[in-house]
């Protein structure tokens, strides 16, 4: 469309189908939320009563502790296994590959139960000196309790996946930069610290954030070894008062609250490590609504 000064203006394409689908989705979601909010069987009063119940708060705190401890172990395990996979030593490569194969190939519940019942296989954990005395010996049950078994099971299982995330992130860095750094005599440790890791973090942070959010919800499987996490605490309450749905709503509320907090943290980390990248795009709400806002601004500039 020509302007008064003779220049051509850009006319944005109108997407009527998108608006129609958005309106239909909004109406369906609004109708469902209205039915849920006004249903007499929902018993929101029960939900409000137990939202900050001491048992629920205790279960929530245990869930947070499990998530933090398990992800710390997963990150450490993944870093070691990932480094071994990228090593030039074939023995380390084979050991790392076999460990990842085993941890990813067996169910998480099986691994949890294995660590929980480890005392039946090794009643005592000791460190002997070859052909000499034992430096120390400790009862397995006193060393690995329910919490320890849960952290080992969850953390080591996730560590196998973190190893692949690290490996993919490091391999995503252009090899030319590595060769250039080595040509000027930069050591391998300094190369990783100053060049490779800062760039690889752009590719490592998003899947690591997703893994942390997934870990938060996966902690509910510790019910199998009797740990009173958030979901288990809620189940114990509704086993007494038979208010299953209102109490499950309590669990959903706290899981969503924790997930939202982790998502905000992930977005901030992504933005931090995406600085200076020409491929960096908006994340979070800005990334969702950015195209819409740009199209509206273009329409206003062109007088539409």
UniProtKB/TrEMBL annotation:
Gene3D superfamilies: MetI-like (1.10.3720.10)
TM spans (from-to): 16-37, 58-81, 101-125, 245-265
Protein's membrane topology: Multi-pass membrane protein
Keyword Transport included in the entry's annotation: yes
GO cellular component terms attached to this protein's record: ATP-binding cassette (ABC) transporter complex
Keyword flag Metal-binding: no
Keywords in alphabetical order: Amino-acid transport, Cell membrane, Membrane, Transmembrane, Transmembrane helix, Transport
Highest taxon of the lineage: Bacteria
Role according to the record: Part of the ABC transporter complex GltIJKL involved in glutamate and aspartate uptake. Probably responsible for the translocation of the substrate across the membrane.
Name of the protein in question: Glutamate/aspartate import permease protein GltK
Native organism: Pseudaminobacter soli (ex Li et al. 2025)
């Amino acid at each position: 469309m020509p302007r008064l000064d003779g220049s051509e203006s850009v006319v944005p394409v109108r997407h009527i189908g998108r608006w129609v689908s958005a309106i239909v989705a909004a109406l369906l979601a609004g109708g469902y939320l209205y039915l849920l909010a006004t249903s007499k069987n929902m018993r929101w009063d029960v939900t409000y009563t137990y939202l900050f119940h001491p048992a629920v708060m205790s279960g929530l705190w245990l869930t947070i502790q499990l998530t933090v401890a398990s992800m710390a172990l997963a990150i450490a395990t993944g870093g070691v296994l990932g480094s071994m996979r990228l090593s030039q030593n074939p023995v380390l490569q084979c050991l790392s590959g076999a460990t990842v194969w085993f941890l990813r190939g067996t169910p998480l519940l099986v691994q949890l139960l294995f660590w929980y019942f480890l005392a039946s296989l090794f009643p005592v954990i000791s460190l002997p000196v070859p052909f000499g005395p034992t430096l120390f010996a400790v009862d397995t049950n006193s060393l690995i309790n329910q919490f320890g078994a849960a952290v080992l099971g969850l953390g080591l299982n996730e560590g196998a996946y973190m190893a692949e995330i690290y490996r993919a992130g490091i391999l995503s860095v252009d090899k030319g930069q590595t060769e250039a750094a080595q040509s000027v005599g930069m050591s391998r440790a300094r190369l990783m610290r100053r060049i490779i890791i800062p760039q690889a973090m752009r590719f490592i942070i998003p899947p690591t954030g997703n893994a942390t959010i997934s870990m938060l919800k996966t902690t509910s499987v510790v019910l199998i070894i009797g740990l009173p996490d958030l979901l288990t605490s809620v189940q114990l309450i509704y086993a007494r008062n038979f208010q299953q749905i209102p109490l499950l709503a309590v669990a959903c509320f706290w899981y969503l609250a924790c997930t939202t907090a982790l998502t905000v943290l992930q977005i901030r980390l992504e933005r931090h490590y995406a600085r200076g990248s020409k491929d960096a795009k908006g994340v979070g709400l800005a990334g969702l609504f950015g195209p819409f806002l740009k199209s509206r601004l273009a329409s206003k500039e062109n007088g539409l």
